[in-house]
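This section describes the prediction task in plain terms. A model, or a person checking by hand, is given the sequence of a single protein chain and must write out its three-dimensional structure as a string of C-alpha cells. No templates, partner chains or ligands are provided. The sample shown here is typical of the held-out split.
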Amino acid sequence: MNAKEIHELSREEIAERIRDEGEQLRQLHFQHAIAELPNPMILRHKRRLIARLRTILNHKDKVGG
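The expected answer:
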C-alpha cells in the first residue's frame, strides 16, 4: 500500500489498518522467534507500513483533513 492509497482512506480506516498490521507484526515476530521465516524482509515491510500509516494519520489530525 503506497502513500497515495493511504491518503484516500478515512482516519478510522487508517487506525484499523494500524491495529491489524501491528497484530500481524507481533505474530510474525513470534513466528520468527520460534522458527525461521520464509522471507524475513516481511518484518521490515510491516514496520515501515505501520510507520507510514501513523505518519499520514498524524498529518491528517494536524491538518484536519
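For orientation: The CA atoms of residues 18 and 36 lie 25 Å apart.
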